[in-house]
Amino acid sequence: MATEIAAGRAAELHRIVELACARIGLDASGAELIKYTVNAVYRLPREQVVVRVASDRSGVSRGQRVVTVARWLQTRGAPIATLLDGDQPLSVDGYTVTFWRELLRRTDWSAADLATPLHHLHALELDSDDRTALPLWDPFSTARERLAHADTSALARADIRWLTEQWDEAEQGYRDVRARLRTGIIHGDPHTGNLLNRPDGAIVLCDLDESGIGPLAYDLVPQAVGATRFHRQHFYREFVQAYGSDVRDDSAWPTLSRIRELIMVTSVLPDLQHRPTVAVQHAHRLATLKAGRHGEPWDLYT
Predict the structure, then answer these.
(1) pLDDT tens digit sequence for 42-63
(2) Which domain holds residue 215?
(3) Both 150 and 283 in a single domain?
(4) What stretch of H or E contains 146?
(5) What percent of the chain has pLDDT over 70?
(6) Element (H, E) at 213
(7) Using CA atoms, how far apart are residues 282 and 150, in angstroms rounded to an integer?
(8) pTM above 0.85, yes or no
(9) pLDDT at 1 over 60
(10) 40, 223, 278, 285: least buried by Cβ within 10 Å?
(11) What letter does residue 83 receive in the DSSP assignment?
(12) Of 74, 101, 128, which one is at a domain's C-terminal end?
């Protein structure tokens, strides 16, 4: 089920998809919203193309970051979704748009299905030129940007201040542990919702917004947090076996898990006021964080 969006915003996003498609000669007829968590994601049934639309102020820089990483990964044969050829991202009336080949979506993924492409990414070697050209994992700057422009009709000023303080503390905590963490190419948001199947059966990762050079251990954190927050303990045990490591044994786990939970609250701030069902779950997540209830379950954003 696609995200519930206020009618006016839904019409605006559809208009942006049509304009962007017209610019590069794609048929937007029947464009269908797949999901809207951080980006609004549409499929074009007549083109077998997926369109990702970012509306927040960091969209342009984030879109360029995604394109840079995707093209580098494609040259390395990495298991990722395929970016369309041509100049990307597009800027359309303040929105940032990227285009991708449509691949098969499934819901029956196993832990090994997720661990396999992660192993591939984490094994990629980086030379000095790569480390200069590729972006660094930096959730802190993204969070500050989103909080600075958060709509106070959707999030109270006191909550904005609280989240800002939490992010400042999390960044300092990360600086304290960063030197002992092994770095490489990370996906940044690996979970089964970001897996796709190529026609040849290969399993690939999509949604590269947070991808770049970062601590490899962080890519294991989403599943470890999900074990508690989303009742996925059994899946996590299988993931640990498939990947071969339990990030909860890492001394950086408290810091990395805190960052993950803050991301899961801050990432949906753009356009929150236009997404009522997302706003309800966001309020619950924020309340549990503020109360220190780290074992309380969350629901997925829908």
Answers:
(1) 999 999 999 999 987 667 788 9
(2) 111-290
(3) yes
(4) helix 139-148
(5) 98
(6) strand 212-215
(7) 13
(8) yes
(9) no
(10) 285
(11) B
(12) 101
